[in-house]
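Quick one before lunch.
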Amino acid sequence: MENYRLNMQGITKIYGNVAAIEGINFSVIQGEVHALIGENGAGKSTLLNILSGVREANTGEIMVDGEVVKMKNPLSARQAGIAMIHQELQHVPELSVAQNMFLGRPLTKYKGLFVNKKAQLERARTILKQLDPSINPDEPIKNLKVAQQQIVEIARALLDDAKIIAMDEPTSSLTPTEFDRLAELISDLKSMKVSIIYVSHKMNEIFRICDRATIMRDGRQVGVVNIRDETEETLVSRMIGRKLEKVQHHSFMTDRDILQVEGLGRGDDVLPATFSVRAGEVLGIAGLVGSGRTELLKLIAGIDAKTCGGIQVNGRPIHNLNVSSAIKAGIGLVPEDRKKEGIIKQRSVAVNMALPKMRNYTRAGMLQKSKLDQAALKVMSELKLRPLDTEKHIGLLSGGNQQKVIIGRWIAADTQVFLFDEPTRGIDIGAKSEIYNLIERLASEGKAIIVVSSEMQEIMRISDRVLVMREGKIAAELTGEDISEENIAQYAINAVFHKK
Ligand SMILES: Nc1ncnc2c1ncn2[C@@H]1O[C@H](COP(=O)(O)OP(=O)(O)OP(=O)(O)O)[C@@H](O)[C@H]1O
Ligand SMILES: [Mg+2]
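Model of the adenosine-5'-triphosphate complex:
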């Protein structure tokens, strides 16, 4: 018992009159990588927020190296050697890397009167050099890629000589190569005897870097396992409390074009693209991060202005392509970054879901609340929103559940053309198959669907046809047997041009 680096006992957190987590026991050994897993809303972030002093537990005890820590605020956590990398990164974009690293605890000179910028810069440089020498500590942090911003967070943790570093879904926006780098970094931290708590919905990551896992379900701790004793299947069934059924791809493709994209482009980002999507078809778009996939979707949805070409929906050209004409034509985009493009935190789930088509729920300027609630409840129960409460402010939902509301939004609006950008990012493995089923249902109803995804398995599971993008171009179109991991990877990486 006494050799636990971290030992949390009987932790309960109540919001209103509901326990978000209840009686959680969670302990971590020195130098291990410990996964914290569970479905969306299971309470992972809540537990980590308590560990890092962001929230106060209603009951329970936190011990570091056998000593009870009085957790009053983030400072108490820091002093106890606990650092946290949050699900949504928090920095001041305009400040430099070094300034962000020393935020709230500057190095000072002249008896604490002035910030010692030079010393901060030097210290930051020394630490960053071990982690990623390409990061300039003097650069405004907003200029860095997300992966680098994450490295800065880790550097910040090292500044404090953290003994425990908790990472809440650190790779949700990293590329596979960036994950490799993080994995290396974690292994270095391990050899420095730092304990890592790792939250992720990605099983391959957990099997690659974690030693043990604590499983949470509905706010309770339901098990602690050694990763090497598990398979992906056993771990998932512990997590969701049932076996995950394997589903085959069903095709509902017809031969009627709904969306026609003709020479649509924007400067060098998206070179003129021509393709169509049929009623009942799911078109996957694969490619590396930065290959122009998101940009292409944004052009179709009228978010970014095109510089050439155009689109037609049901044979009707959209003359003045912008967000409102696109929505009017029945196009809906589920964006990659819900925080920037998606939600109003202080409003209810129902209102957030209705946003693009608020007019459907108002009469003579008055909100028809019962109509709205009914619509929201229908979609949200289909997506298994937890809690199934359409009145709750969306900002209070777990990350994955917020994503579900945004997906639900376009289902409730009468959308013809669905554009999904990384639809299951941050979504737990059980809810993923619900989203696949839903996409399939939309296809069976004759909708046209485009899915951009970096997950090969996902593309293969749901697509009738796959476009592979590379450097702003459509490099290949794959159908039938040709849709394979090898083909996708080859076209995504090599400059092979496909002639139609
Ligand atoms: N400030 C709050 N007020 C009310 N309820 C909250 C608040 N913060 C979290 N909750 C609720 O606590 C529960 C656990 O949420 P938490 O964010 O810990 O889940 P999670 O396991 O991190 O999920 P995800 O994988 O989606 O990130 C959810 O039902 C959530 O709605
Ligand atoms: Mg979370």
